[in-house]
Structure formats: C-alpha cells, structure tokens
Amino acid sequence: MELVLGHQKLAAAGGTETYLLTVAEQLQRLGHEVTIFALEAGEMAHVASSRGLRVVTAEHDLPGSCDGVIAQDAVVSLILAARYPGTVQVFVAHAPGADFHRPVQLADVISAVVVLNDRVARRLDGLAQRHEIVRLRQPIDIQRFSPRGGPRAAPEQVLLVSNYMLGRPREVLAQACAGAGLRLEHLGRHGRPSTTPELDIADSDITVGHGRAALEGMASGRAVYIFHHQGGDGWITAASYAAFEADGFAGAGNDDTIDGARVQRDLAAYRPDMGIVNRQLVFAHHHALDHARDLVVLLRRLSPGSPSHSPAPLREMARLVRMQWQTEGRRVDLAAENDALRGQLERERARAREESAAIHAELAAFRRTRRYRLASLLARPLEALRRRRD
Question: Does the structure show a pLDDT above 60 at 293?
C-alpha cells in the first residue's frame, strides 16, 4: 500500500512525534510505501531521515495518489483530505483535550478514529461528528527499547522523562530522590533534550514519567513510577497495569494522591524484578509491529473496493535500500554504544589499577617509617614465642 502519514510538526522529540516515527518504521518493515508529511521540520525530521524514512514538507513532493492517510492533527488532516479526496483517512487522537488534536467536525474527511486508551475514547463520545472509534494500544519499538544490562539490585539513578515537568512537582521528586540517596536526571524540554532516550533509560534504574515515556521505560526492563505535573499513580505492576493502561498511563488510573513523603516511601519499595515484569507486559501488549498490522487491516477494511498500488520492482528495491539504511544506522548506533561502554570499562579498570598502585605505594612508604620498623622489632619476640607454642 502507498501510505501517507501526517503531522504538523516534526521538530523536537515528543510523544506524538515518536509515535509517528515508530509506526512509519513498522509499516515500512511490512513492505508498504511510506511518506511522512510535516509542515514544520526539525530535529525529529532528521532522525526520521536517518532511519531511512521519506520525509517531505511540501505538498508537491507528496505522491500523486495513495491508498490511505494517517493523520494526527486537524491541520494536516484537512490538507491531506483536500490532497487525496475520497481516500481513506485514519485519525489518531492522542490528546483530544486540545482542539488541535481533536478530529475535525466535518463529514467525509475522516473514515475512522484510532484511540490509544479508554480515557481518550470517553472524551470523544461527546463530539458532534460521530466517527467509528477503534481502540488500539500504544506501540513501542521493543528492539530499540530493550534491556541493556541492569537494573541494579539497589537503585542509584532515577530518570525523569517529561517535556512538561517543572516547578513544584519537579522539586517534590528531586527532594524525594535526595532523601532516598538517589541521583535524579531530567530528560526533556525543561531538562536535557535527547533523541536517543533508549540509551538514557538504559543508564538508569528507575524511570519516572507518564504516557509513552512510561512504556519506553517498561520496554527497557526498568521499574517505572507514574508521576508528573498533573498527578501520579505510583509503581506500575502486573496488578496495576490494566487500570493504568486504560488511563493511558496519565496519572489518573486510581484515586491516590501523591506527595513527597509518599514518593520517598515508594522509592524505598523498589525491586529490580519490577523491570522484568514490565518488559513482559510491553512485549505481550504493545509490540509496534502488531500495531502497524492493525492499522493496515483497518485501512483495508475501510476501503475494500479500492485497488492497492503494486510497487514496481525499482520502487521495491528503493524500499529495501531504505530498510538497509535503517539497519545500518542501528548497527552504527550499537557500535558507538559498545565503544562507549568499552571505554568506560577501560577507564574504570585504569582507575582501579591506579588506586591499587597508590595503596601499595602508601603501604611501602609506611613500611619505611621509623614507627613501622620499631613495631616490627618489638613484635619479633612475640612472633618467636608464638611459633614455639605452635
């Protein structure tokens, strides 16, 4: 199928941008022709291109026709509806509390709306335009987000992954971590930006966040704590997963309220096997390839009479080359990660050797002191007496 995926902004890293790239990669793996359309391109557009995805910012660079459109915001939804009249359009509603992310209230624009949790589905019930609602689960690239060693038996580092956390909520978390003797690092708009969160999560023991960030931490085999600027739920466990997933890991999956004392108590209850369970849950319910397959099945069901574009051999070769480019990019990233870890290990070994040499030097220097020589002379009769007794 020839598919066009649209989002107004593909600049800074965020949940909707990461979703778009994840789905695009998996659709391409399934053999479909994928074009990403963004009105504003930036860092995430470069990331998409580096992964072998086709990104365009002008309408005249779009395919002349396509089999399906997947849109995530009202602006691009309307632009692509005008560009491809009569073509099936699936709208992915992430946060319908904002008008921008709500399906447009016009007939014959959107064929179906995909929601990724029950909370969003309930909010869409009040819209004037009645669309078919299809409930899917948030997709995670379980190859990119995977356990890379650890977590430690006793936690040392907490990673806050959020573009919105600042002010008093962040202070509460920072104070709780300090009280528990844990280092806190903040990844996001108000912390340190990153387009490779999988590496940052791998360096930590506990992931704090909500939404996709929580699932990325789970996929990486880390203990995950739901806490952000609008609320919190606490630890994700096998028992709490169903309620938290239905809420979209948004911090309103139960009636609890979380303050600093509660966070510090919860951090003390950390167990490394939380990450093992989390990885199993994501593998079973959030595999990105399964999500892409469900989108393809939905698009085919909505347009059963329309013929699917059959890619010419050269176009299929081009897709395979893009896939090879993507694989090579991952290989380079993993090689760089291995080199960094090898360098870190060598530095630690060198530091251990230096510390050992320093200890031996101090011991040798101590043995040359008058005090040590005098003590040795005084100890000789006692040592001789001990030997005779033995």
Answer: yes
Cβ distance 82 to 71 under 8 Å? no
For residue 329, the model assigns a pLDDT of 65
Confidence of residue 330 (pLDDT cuts 50, 70, 90): low
Q: What is the pTM of this model?
A: 0.78
